[in-house]
Every structure is written in structure tokens, then in C-alpha cells.
């Protein structure tokens, strides 16, 4: 139906539609809520686990450091009381007592030569500044370096003392903590994402119920109401407020429809009687002037009766009457019936009527109302398409919807005037000098809404194209 539209293959659809859905979800309020909830959970969980990891690591390291500091203090006290000889003997004694344990000790003289300990030499570049440091060193009799936490200090006689401890077990325990906390962090992220999505779905379901009700009301189902659970929360109060508003709208629209329907129905009888009286008077009079006047009255009375009939039909269609009479219909056959009925009139008016629709096209619709709509559109084209010579009726399925188009190649309607043409009793002739009621397109719109669709006016280049979109639900 839509000209010059590039066709997309299945592969292009698969590539574009998911990304568009995700992009639309990311821009939606629900998407932003899910993202914010996940971010908050991420920051809180990440902060807590990071604190636990740092605290556990500090605790393990602090225990080793405290043990090394205690050993250093004992040895320094012994050196002050007994000198280097006593310190050397204490170091030897400790190694005999704790052989194979994690202790690291080294005593050197003022020239840096080792006196006692389990390190072969003083570590290069290590200053005896009393600071705790962790480095990899070789113990005597070991083939591989080991991570050690050491405290190097300078003695009063110029010698140096290195007190330390192998911290490989502590570092391994720290790595185990880190791995466990990393796994816990990943699991918490998955759980946080799941909770955020679940909350988003709950909110989306609440909003979707309101949106679905609004959509149903928009197509004429004024009896629909937003589901409420009586919980008294914000969504429940919103639903109750919307339902109260819909009750009021339903009452006002019902009164208006009853008034319109009653007025149109009550006026049809006197207008019909007026037409009958005029016809009888025309048959009885022989005065040409009187006959001309009666003919004008007869024409205006028929116009009035047609307006009342159309107004009554619009009112009943907008009220939903006939919605249960939609049946699967051969659309091509329906268009050919319109062509057969209006073909002679179209030819007499100097137009050619062309029909284009797939023979296998079947769609559920109210056949009589759609036929009346197409008939009105053909009559409008005959009346307003001055200078044109072609009227086209076409139908096609697009995205599951039925699109019926009635197009002509006349002067068309300017884009800025098309909204006025769709209004009820809308007339593009400000002086209303030309006959017409302004109800034709209103009927089309009412019929389209009965089929959950709408009416649009487009440029036919040249001319006007009226598009009826009919949906299954």
C-alpha cells in the first residue's frame, strides 16, 4: 500500500527488531527503574564485600605483623642487656626450637657480614629503617623464594637485625578470601539483576493494565475499568481515580449518544413525512414555478434525511453496535461489489474505477459498514475530485492490519486542512456554499474505530488518498 517503502528481508528484521526493542526498553521509565535499582544494589553489595575483603586481609596481615614485631622487640631487649653474643645465642636457640617453622632471622655485623640466621646475606637495597615490608627472599636450604614479611632494624653497635616471618599461608588465605568474595559478588549481581527485573515486571504489569484500559476506552469500550486490588497503594489509588473519571466520561458520552440517537431518530419521521407530502404536492400541481420550488424542497429534505441517517449510523457505530457482527470476509469480493454498484455512476461522471486486492485476502470485518464507508469515499471522490479521471480502490495486509485505500488524482486536500476534514461536520468550504454535511469522513472514522483502527489522509501525488486501517483486535 505505501509507495516507495524499502522492503526488508527476514535477516534485516532479525537484526534490527531486537536492538530496537532493547533501545526502547532502555529509554523507558521501567528500563530506567530497573537500571537504577540494579545500580543501587551493585553499589551497596560491592561496597559491603569490598569492606569485608579489605578487613579480612588487614586482619590476616596484622596478625603476622604483630608476631614479627613481638619477636623484634624481644630480640632488641636481649641485645641491649646482653649484647651481640647473647643475641646470637638466642637466635640459634630459637632455630633449634622452631626448626621448620615460618621464622626468618638474620643478624649481621657493622660491615654487613652475616653472624647468625637463616638468610645467606642481607637483602640488597633493604634499609634498616624499622618499617614492615613484604618481599620474596631465599631461606637457607630452600631452592625457591618465599614471600616474607620482615622488619629490618639497626643495632646500637652498628650491626643490623632482620626479623620476619614467611607469609605464604597468609597470602594464600587472603587469595581464598578474594576468590570467595568475588564469587559472592558475581552471585549478588545476578541476584540483584533478577530482583530489579522482577520489580520492573511488577511495575510494568501495573502500568500495562492502565495502558490496556486506556487503549480499550480510546477505541470505544467505555465500560472497561482499571483492575484494582484494594491495597490502597499508589497504583490502587491511581486506578480508582481513573475508574471514577471513566465512570463520569461514560455517563456523559452515554447521555450525548442517547440525545444524538434520539434526536436523529425523532427527526427522521417528520422529515420522511415532509418528503411524502412534497411528493404528493408535486404530483397534484401543474404550476411550473410551484414544481420547481417543490423540487428544491424535496432535494433539501432528502439531504436532511441522509444527514440524519448518517448521524444515527455514526452514533450507533461509536456506541459499539455491530462489533459482534464482524465476520471473515473476502476483501477483493467486497471491493468488486462496490465497483459493480458504482461503476455506471463513475463512468457517467467521467471517471474510471480500478480495484486492486489479492483474491486470497480474508479479514474479519463488518461487511455492511465497511461497504457504506467505501461507498461514501467513492461518492466524495466523484464530487470533489474535479479535474481527475481515475479512482482507485485497493487493499493489502501490512503488519497484520488491513489497509484499504481510496485514491483519486484530483486537486486533493492541503496538508494543513486535513485535520479539519476529519472532524465531524468539518467543511473545507468556509461559506458552506456547496452541498454536503461534513459527516462522510466521520462515518469512516467511526467504522475504523469499530475495527480498532483509524483513518488517515495522504497525498496521492496528485490527488487525495484516504487510508482505512482495520485491525483484528
UniProtKB/TrEMBL annotation:
Its EC number is 2.7.13.3. Its main location: membrane. One of its GO terms (molecular function) is phosphorelay sensor kinase activity. The chain crosses the membrane at residues 180-199. Gene3D superfamilies: 1.10.287.130, Histidine kinase-like ATPase, C-terminal domain (3.30.565.10). Residues 201-254 form the HAMP domain. It holds the Pfam family HAMP. Keywords: Kinase, Membrane, Phosphoprotein, Transferase, Transmembrane, Transmembrane helix, Two-component regulatory system. Signal peptide: none annotated. SUPFAM superfamilies: ATPase domain of HSP90 chaperone/DNA topoisomerase II/histidine kinase (SSF55874), Homodimeric domain of signal transducing histidine kinase (SSF47384). It is an enzyme of class 2 (transferase). CDD domains: HAMP, HATPase, HisKA. GO terms for cellular component: plasma membrane. It comes from the Bacteria. Residues 262-473 form the Histidine kinase domain. It is found in: Membrane. InterPro entries: HAMP_dom, HATPase_C_sf, HATPase_dom, His_kinase_dom, HisK_dim/P_dom, HisK_dim/P_sf, Sig_transdc_His_kin-like_C, TCS_sensor_his_kinase. It catalyses: ATP + protein L-histidine = ADP + protein N-phospho-L-histidine. PANTHER family: HISTIDINE KINASE, SENSOR HISTIDINE KINASE YKOH. This is histidine kinase. It comes from Sphingobium indicum (strain DSM 16413 / CCM 7287 / MTCC 6362 / UT26 / NBRC 101211 / UT26S) (Sphingobium japonicum).
